[in-house]
Fold:
Amino acid sequence: MSTKSLLDQKIVLDHGTGARLSRELVDFVVDVLGDVYTGEMEDSAMLPVPAGNIALTTDSFVVDPPLFGNGDIGKIAVCGTVNDLAVVGAKPEYLTLAMILETGLPISTLHRVLESIRDTAKEAGVKIVAGDTKVVGVGEADQIFLNTTGVGVFHREPLRMTSVRPGDRIILSGPIGNHTVHLLSVREGLGFETNVLSDCAPLNGMIAGLDELIERGAVHSMRDVTRGGLNAVLHEYSSAVGRVVSVQEEALPIEFATRMASDMLGINPINAANEGCLAVFVAPEAVDEVLAALHAHPYGKQAVVIGEITDRAEAAVEMTGADGKVQTIEELQGAELPRLC
Structure:
């Protein structure tokens, strides 16, 4: 059956039986993914990788809503996996793609998600090499859930949290909070989504622009700022190195509309999920070079220094306000906002 004829249909349980309808659905998926899919329909993908270390990561995505203004669950799935590989210093190469589809899901929705997966995989330069599809009954999932596993190859030593040193400056590649505000606005019909777009993006191209600085030892560690937001990242690093992390509230890159929406929603942008923001831990003498490299890439034009790793031996995060007062930022006990990634 042609792709065009399937677009007006919906997912049914028989799409998951392994019989003819399953084969038609797989053919549909392969057709939409095009040349980013390299699988040969064997039970396992057989891949060439150079001798040495590889990076392996896996993640599941249950985004609500699965479609939003400038992206969807498919784009987030590729970005999230690619970014997790890139921040440890690996070159992303391969992805697997597993889908859980709810009966009744319009195939046109699946088509849009697959197009996003294809386009984002092309931008990131990765290939989808294996996949799986399961269909469940109404109410057993929420439209579509995805799982992606990524493989990356190391061409240098991995970047680790424990490599961060006292005196290192903390740089954010762009604004925080936009992804959360955008999805909440779409979900609740608040009207902010036209002014505040999700930051969802594959960051491996921008990170590649830091290669020389990483080789020189100027960049000590990186982390993509996703679930738990900036707050979670800062606490992870503080715990890993046993030092107080200090940030300046006025330096935090928060767009005006995002701040206004966050105030209205009663959320703090430092706890908000992001999908295209990079935290870079940099030797102080290399800050200007790192900023210049980030500013040269479209995803890093708003990169700024927000704080530093102090030499005080304690696992804590402090924030200095505009009035000079210092407050301790507590780590969240749980998720402030669910299902944004």
The first helix runs from residue 3 to 6. The domain at 3-154 is CATH 3.30.1330.10 (60s Ribosomal Protein L30; Chain: A;).
